[in-house]
Amino acid sequence: MVQYVYEFSEGGRDMADLLGGKGANLAEMTRMGLPVPPGFTVTTEACRAFLATGTEPDGLTEEIAAHLTALEQSAGRRLGQPDDPLLLSVRSGARFSMPGMMETILDIGLTDDSVRGLAKVSGSERFAWDSYRRLVQMFGSTVMGVAPELFEAAIARLKDSLNAPDDLRLDASDLARLVETYKNLISGETGEDFPQDPTEQLHRSVRAVFESWNGQRARLYRRREHIPDTLGTAVNVQRMVFGNLGPDSGSGVAFTRDPATGHRRPYGDYLPNAQGEDVVAGIRNTVPLTDLGRLDPTSYTQLCDRLGTLEAHYRDLCDIEFTIERGTLWMLQTRVGKRTAEAAFTLAAELADEGLITADEALARVSGDDAARLMFPRFDTAAVGDALAHGIPASPGAAVGAAVFDCAEAVRRAAAGQKVVLVRQETTPDDLPGMVAAQAVLTSRGGKTSHAAVVARGMGKVCVCGAEDLAIDLQGRRCIAGGITVEEGTVISVDGSTGTVYAGAAPLVDSAVMRYFETGERSGDLVDAVARALDRADGVRRLGVRANADTPEDAARARRFGAEGIGLCRTEHMFLGDRRKLVEAMILAHTDADRVRALDALLPLQRKDFVGILEAMDGLPVTIRLLDPPLHEFLPDRTELAVRIATAEARGTPPSTHDTELLEAVNRMHEENPMLGLRGVRLGLVAPGLVAMQVRAIAEAVVERKRAGGDPRAEIMVPLIDAVEELRLVREEVEETLAAVSETSGMAVHCPVGTMIELPRAALTAGRIAQEAAFFSFGTNDLTQTTWGFSRDDVEAAFFSAYLDKGIFKVSPFETIDPEGVGRLVRIAVAEGRAARPDLKIGVCGEHGGDPASVHFFHNAGLDYVSCSPFRVPVARLEAGRAAL
Ligand code: PEP
Ligand code: MG
């Protein structure tokens, strides 16, 4: 027969699936001999069975009754015994903490009779009646379904009539009257009396806690925290202890170390003469834990002792809830405590130093997300005001600047020395100079893989995107959010770690961890702890970590951050700015000679870019991707051009031939669906001379670096392959060009030629493609886009929040790799690619390369390296290390 109820002494911390987190830890403390009020746990399995059928599973009621009898026997009194009642608490406790989301019922066992017994044994009428009115109120709302506001209104009316500012002014007879009012309220609302049978109170409370698993609050919380709906909650039934029995009683919360810094020092709050609920509710002000040392030295010493015991046992920071009942200390709850990112690192290092955990365990205790949080200046959260808007936290950090609404204004003000935040509906490659000039980018549309997000992350620039509550009035040069108008030039603060935007300049705190990555300056406990974790990760990881970088500065930074090469150098950024004119000339060329001239003019500029990057990454691989985006992206906007021409015509001046030719070209190249159009390898195959120009620039850069005594290791990557034939054709052109440069320079230039795998067809035919490719790099941005059929630029704003709410996925597949679909394609391509070519080098360079969960996936899928933006390199190193543990 299934066992649905466990005595605390039967369980343990490794039974959290069955007993919930709270129940498992209560059991653990009981077994450690710590003073836990006795009780038992009804399992999550019982809850699941109840929720599936709507009734208690067979045997549950009897099991609870048997455990109650045992509890009564050990206490020497019965539940609700009129002259000296045993009272119980019934609390939820799921596998994962869901604070305040489910129900708790205290003081079960109080009735019209036993309240008098409690008054007598406790020596306090007031205490007894206050406990009873709490029970009636909690039971009435939670179990019997009376609206909680009705109880609140009743107590407020009573206080008003007595001129009492708070509950403490209500005496025993006031509270006794209140109990009557509450009971009448319950009968009136439900047609049923508050039950006077203590056992009925208990059973109905357990059932109510089960049901609260499916309450609206709990469901929402689970969705947000990615907790499965199927787990169910356990229910802990425990003898009540009271912290509100006088000055020698009280309740508090304590941590074994400071959860903000990780350092060892007493940390917590204490509330004399109060129940635990009062501490949480914040009705009265607590005192620091150290004050307990003065108020009750014996209990304080005992508590410190027990904290030490717990930390040594759990080998981690723990937090506890405790109650002192007339000088006796009781432990009501413990768990491994939440901590800040700073505390996570410091604590891991200290516990390792103390010999409590190993270096590998210390590495497992920190995360890439924690590291990322520490790399950016932060807003001093204690000092920020109300939020102006919320969006998607796309690129972390905190920035302050004057709001500007277009690229030109951003550049102008930045050149004048002003700090600016570029606020746009969405960004395009045209906004690049403005993004470079700005401290932060804020958009009202687009998701984590929108242009703004990807580019900002690449630059390590703060970005919040998709802030839909932001209405941008470009004409009026202002935006409106939450009823507040922000005129151009008004200072705003953008928190890219939380997605929050504030009005005004929020105060900033600098990052010592970032200084360490930039300069190697290893000062302070925190920096030292981060450095140690990374060293360990580097020692154990199998995955290589490269960076996505396309300027020498980014390449150099990536190297300082620990990148072992460049996994993706996007060459399209090298076609912007002043070079657009040359790109236009290439597109508009009437003759081969014109085109060659335009390409020839681009060549030295590209070469110079590559020389800088190869120099910064000397001795390490640099994967250069041939041009990917559609060419029309480098031409002026179609509407702007048409307006310019129409305006000229209206004025009677004929438009320039250049403009009309441009418009013609734009119209010719216009695509309804450019993401699936003439881009990637397709472009290289239909735009004569383009591939040759790029490859020549790479090869000549290699020659130049070699002549300078360097060790350039360029690799050439072909984007958006569908079929092996595409790769074969481009590869031939690449090899011819390399041979030509080798010949003219007299220096052999060998560059491995590989391909991106970013279309499902490529993944599914990877075996054939591998025959032509020295390496694969998964472009998981496009692979996600094309596998799901989701436009990477649109969907996040359009319907992802609805999809997340409905639980279709728990996290955007553009953020964390979808293991079942996209991941399956990755695995197929790895297996078939390696089968065809065992030495095939395989990496990933989509945004997922810097996402912790995805890094673990790529480790398990057998990739050789991940490539991510320079600022994510430490995150990827750390997670690659953790994945290998
Ligand atoms: C990708 O598609 O994952 C990729 C890296 O290429 P891009 O983002 O430039 O399309
Ligand atoms: Mg791509």
Automatic annotation (TrEMBL):
Describe the reaction catalysed, as an equation: pyruvate + phosphate + ATP = phosphoenolpyruvate + AMP + diphosphate + H(+)
UniProt-listed InterPro entries: ATP_grasp_subdomain_1 (IPR013815), PEP-util_enz_mobile_dom (IPR008279), PEP_util_AS (IPR018274), PEP_util_C (IPR000121), Phosphohistidine_dom_sf (IPR036637), PPDK_AMP/ATP-bd (IPR002192), Pyruvate_phosphate_dikinase (IPR010121), Pyrv/PenolPyrv_kinase-like_dom (IPR015813)
Is Magnesium set as a keyword in this record? Answer: yes
A single GO molecular-function term is: pyruvate, phosphate dikinase activity
Please give the PROSITE patterns that the UniProt record associates with this protein.
PEP_ENZYMES_PHOS_SITE
Task: Give residue ranges for domain PEP-utilising enzyme mobile.
Answer: 418-499
> Cofactors per UniProt?
Mg(2+)
EC number assigned by the record: 2.7.9.1
Name the UniProt key words of this record, in alphabetical order: ATP-binding, Kinase, Magnesium, Metal-binding, Nucleotide-binding, Pyruvate, Transferase
**Which PANTHER family does the entry mention?**
PHOSPHOENOLPYRUVATE DIKINASE-RELATED, PYRUVATE, PHOSPHATE DIKINASE 1, CHLOROPLASTIC
Record's NCBIfam families? PRK05878.1, pyru_phos_dikin
What is this protein called in UniProt?
Pyruvate, phosphate dikinase
* Organism, scientific name: Streptomyces flavofungini
